[in-house]
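Thread amino acids onto this structure.
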C-alpha cells in the first residue's frame, strides 16, 4: 500500500496573502478542516504545516506555512497535495482508498484470473472499475459484484454471475 495518499491538486493562488485553492480528490472535502500537515510529494520529503483551511462549493482553500504572499503561492500551482496514512481520513468498513485498489489482482470466486485493476473512474452514482486482462472490461463498483477485497494479499474477488449481467467487455460490439 502507498504510504502517502493524494488529496487534491493546487489549482491557483487565492488572494494576496498566500492562500491556495485546491481541487479536492476526496469524497468529503470537509476533511481539509482536520489537516495539520500536507506533503508536496508522494514520498513525504516536503512537508508543510497547514495554518488554516476553509471549504466552499468550488473547492478547498488552504494557508500553508512559509507561503505568505501570492507570488510564493503561485509556485505551488498544479502541484498535488498528499497526506500520510496517519493523516488520512478513516474509512468505514468496506470502503477503500483508490490508491490501494489500483494494481490489485482480480479473480473470480473460483480463482480464475481476470486481470489487474487498472483504473477507478468516479462517474457519479457508482465508481467504475477498469480491469485489464486477457479480456479487459469495465464494471460498476457495486457490492453484489465484489465478493471480497484483500489489500494484504492484493486481490479483489468478483462474482462471475454478476459480472455476466453488468460488465462491459472491450471486445463486445
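Threaded sequence (173 positions):
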Amino acid at each position: 500500500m502507498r504510504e502517502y495518499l493524494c488529496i487534491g491538486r493546487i489549482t491557483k493562488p487565492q488572494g494576496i496573502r498566500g492562500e491556495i485553492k485546491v481541487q479536492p480528490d476526496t469524497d468529503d472535502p470537509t476533511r481539509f478542516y482536520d489537516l495539520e500537515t500536507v506533503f508536496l510529494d508522494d514520498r513525504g520529503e516536503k512537508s508543510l504545516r497547514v495554518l488554516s483551511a476553509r471549504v466552499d462549493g468550488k473547492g478547498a482553500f488552504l494557508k500553508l506555512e512559509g507561503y505568505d504572499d501570492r507570488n510564493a503561492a503561485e509556485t505551488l500551482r498544479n502541484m498535488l497535495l498528499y497526506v500520510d496514512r496517519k493523516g488520512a481520513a478513516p474509512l468505514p468498513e468496506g470502503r477503500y482508498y483508490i490508491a490501494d485498489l489500483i494494481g490489485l489482482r482480480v479473480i473470480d470466486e473460483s480463482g480464475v484470473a481476470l486481470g489487474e485493476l487498472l483504473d477507478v473512474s468516479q462517474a457519479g452514482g457508482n465508481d467504475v472499475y477498469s480491469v485489464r486482462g486477457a479480456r479487459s472490461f469495465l464494471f460498476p463498483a457495486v457490492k453484489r459484484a465484489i465478493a471480497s477485497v484483500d489489500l494484504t494479499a492484493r486481490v479483489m474477488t468478483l462474482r462471475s454471475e454478476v459480472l455476466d449481467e453488468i460488465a462491459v467487455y472491450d471486445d463486445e460490439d
